[in-house]
Design a protein that fits this description.
- It is a single chain.
- With 113 residues, this protein is an all-beta fold.
- 0% of the residues lie in helices and 47% in strands.
- It starts with a strand and ends with a strand.
């Protein structure tokens, strides 16, 4: 069955960095775009970044452009989100998503001093 398992969330100080990983299984990973979403407390889930099949094309939500980088390794069936210069407003649960159907369980990112 399809599984998406995120890891890498943590408590980090403002200005710090984290790298999230999402390991996929149960489907042909390279056949799908992949997304990272986040949900802050009391807010709706929002799309943060997307990546195409080969990783050539990426898209970002405006507030994370130039700070976050999405990438993928189609041999390891893993999508990554490198997050730099983290801000308190980046706090939330980050979810890996296969478009239109499957979600991971989420990983908590907290940015606080």
């Amino acid at each position: 069955q399809v599984q998406l398992v995120e890891s890498g969330g943590a408590l980090v100080q403002p200005g710090g960095s984290l790298r999230l990983s999402c390991r996929a299984s149960g489907f042909t990973f390279s056949d799908y775009y992949m997304n990272w979403y986040r949900q802050a407390p009391g807010k709706e889930r929002e799309l943060v970044a997307s990546i195409s099949f080969t990783g050539r094309d990426t898209n970002y939500e405006d507030s994370v452009k130039d700070r976050f980088t999405i990438s993928r390794d189609n041999v390891k069936n893993t999508v990554y989100l490198q997050m730099n210069d983290l801000r308190p407003e980046d706090t939330g649960v980050y979810y890996c998503n296969r478009p239109r159907d499957y979600w991971g369980q989420g990983t908590q990112v907290t940015v606080s001093s």
